[in-house]
Amino acid sequence: MKFHSVVTTLAMAASICVPTTVFAAPAASVHLPVHAFFGKVHMVTLNLRNDTSANITVKAGDKELTLLPGKPQTVKLAAGDKIVATAQCAGHSEGEVLSTVDPMMDQGTLGLK
User: Could you tell me if residue 15 is inside a domain?
Assistant: First the structure.
């Protein structure tokens, strides 16, 4: 008889403690930047301007562009895209990375010399 009352008392105590442990924060409550994996790609609008006296051919993202001297050209690129020189020109060799697009460059002008 005493054994049953001890077991009943322990069962009652356990049932009282269970709701507090059910609502407790999990041990692995580390906040990871999941939005970095599943978020939208940030698009950047950028003006490319050729500050030399000759044409410059660049690859901006997937697009190949020829920049005329002194003429700005507006492009819309994803953050992280690279602007690469596709031909030898004054001061730049073929395949040289001229810039990497950053969200801070939005609505800015990149002058190439």
Answer: no
Residues 101, 103, 109, CA angle at the centre, nearest 5°?
65
Phi, psi of 5 (to 5 degrees): -70, -35
70 and 50 Cβ atoms separated by less than 8 Å: yes
Indicate if the pLDDT at residue 62 is higher than 80.
yes
pTM, two decimal places: 0.62
Say how many CA atoms lie within 13 Å of 17 toward its Cβ.
6
Say how many domains are in the chain: 1
Closest CA to 74 of 33, 31, 105: 105
- pLDDT, tens digit, for every residue of 72-93? 999 999 999 999 999 888 788 9
CA-angle at 43, arms to 72 and 73, nearest 5°: 10
Is residue 53 domain-resident? yes
Kindly report the CATH number assigned to the domain that includes residue 54: 2.60.40
